[in-house]
Amino acid sequence: MKTFVSPGNATCCSILSFFGIIFLVVLGVAFDARVEVLTEFVTDPDDPSATAKACFTAAIVYACFLGFCSCQSLIHRYNARNQIQL
């Protein structure tokens, strides 16, 4: 099986994607609930619901990266086990 990224990059991408998903979902829920700290100031977004939707969309993109990089890590492990060692 062919891999596109190195094992270290796949692991790093998986970890960063996992924490990015958590952060974006929490931020999206906070904007959707119109938390005062995020929505009541002049410089804050005019439409918190649209901002929440953008956070959830970005979390979906991160989930796709997590799936891809996790598959790459599994392929690296599979290839390492099946190598003939002399």
From TrEMBL:
Annotated GO MF terms: RNA endonuclease activity
GO cellular component: a single term: membrane
Parts of the chain that traverse the membrane: 12-31, 51-75
Membrane topology, from the record: Multi-pass membrane protein
Domain of life: Eukaryota
Keywords: Membrane, Transmembrane, Transmembrane helix
Subcellular location: Membrane
Name of this chain's protein: MARVEL domain-containing protein
Source organism (scientific name): Hesseltinella vesiculosa
